[in-house]
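SEQUENCE, STRUCTURE TOKENS:
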Amino acid sequence: MRDTAKNKISDELINQFVLWCSGFLPSIEFENLIYAFEKEFSRFYFGREIESNVIRIINAIIDKVSFLSDCLNYPHHVEIICSIAANSNYLTDILVRNPELFYQIFSPQYLKSTVDKKTLSQEIENGVSRYKTLDAKVKYLRSYKRRYLLKIGLNDILG
């Protein structure tokens, strides 16, 4: 493992990036991708846990190559993923469990939108009314809770 004091990505994480990108990204883009992650990691106390969380998050994405290509064009993707990985195992777990939330968290409109009691109660009422069984209603409420906890937590982390 490389020296963590210099915030270098470990060989293990680089090898994981190679597996994800092999044959899809030109070497210059691959180098830029590694640099983008190293630059973002330098903002945090860097360790194995952050790398593990990043691996878990990216492994949950269905189209990893497209996402990693997007990271080159949209640097805030790297910032958001690294911020979540560095600050919260719980938010990491939410993203791993609900990968459909990925592109939602990259939307500035979604993150900036305010939450009020009336909207929340209306969304919950409309969502719960679509289901008939208690089990389905509870699953919906848990999913809804995770989505909003991710939004609130990410807003707190990003400031």
User: Anything to note?
Assistant: The chain is about 75% helix and 0% strand. The chain has one domain: 4-158.
